[in-house]
Amino acid sequence: MNMSRKLLSRIYLSAFLSAGASIGGWAITSRFAGDVAAASFLYLSIPIVIGVLVLQAVLFMNIKDRVCHLVLFNIVSAFGVLWMMFCLVLPLLWMDSIYMSVRIVIFCAALLLFYLNIIKGLRNFRLRWGNIGRALLGKHYKSDRGLIAWEEVIGSLKLSISFHVPGIPQKLEPILSVVLVISMLAGLSLRKIFPTFSIFAWSIPSLICIATILQIVGAALGQYFVLRELEKKDKTTIHFA
Predict the structure, then answer these.
(1) Could you list the residue range(s) of the whole structural domain that residue 160 is in?
(2) DSSP code of 63?
(3) Euclidean distance between CA atoms 233 and 42, whole angstroms
(4) Is the pLDDT of residue 16 over 80?
(5) Based on the number of CB atoms within 10 Å of its own CB, is 158 exposed (0-12), middle (13-18) or buried (19 or more)?
(6) Using 50, 70 and 90 to split pLDDT, how confident is the model at 193?
(7) How far apart are CA 32 and CA 175, in angstroms?
(8) Can you give the pLDDT at residue 45?
């Protein structure tokens, strides 16, 4: 019952964040690209938000204490936060003051950055799982009963995320953090004076933040793959101990 309440609260939070982000994205698009572009933004965002909420509801109804289903639910639940960040960036796609070629380059670069960060999160999980997690199965996993103390296993891995931008050394991460904050503040402050510069100034840090959060998604995918491998190997469905 407690788990059900927690999961329902995540659905409500995701719905609230997604709806608020969509309204904010609509307002930003209207401000920088006009009402027609803002309407197009809503036509894009509403089906996405509804589709994700429906997927959350379906996963919620089918969890039944199965661990891999909860992992999938957690991945989808991250959408609310990600969409909030996306809605700061998506108005770029409708701004006529930015050349189409520039928009395409930004879009492609963002996709590459997202992919690289998901892969980093997945690899980091696999590394920690190989070094620590696999050895914990004997203590926390009862294959004959299909029960696992998954939270204890994951907590022992001590997973973490960090900025990952190709070409920027990890030792410069503190400097990058400061630059991103300054850039976002400058963008918000100058939105009425230099609107095009403003949206670039907050969009680029937003893309980097989205990419960083996607490392969590990559790690969650790693969890799902491990759980499914265990289920196939032991011919069982794994539930919470």
Answers:
(1) 2-240
(2) -
(3) 45
(4) yes
(5) exposed
(6) confident
(7) 30
(8) 92
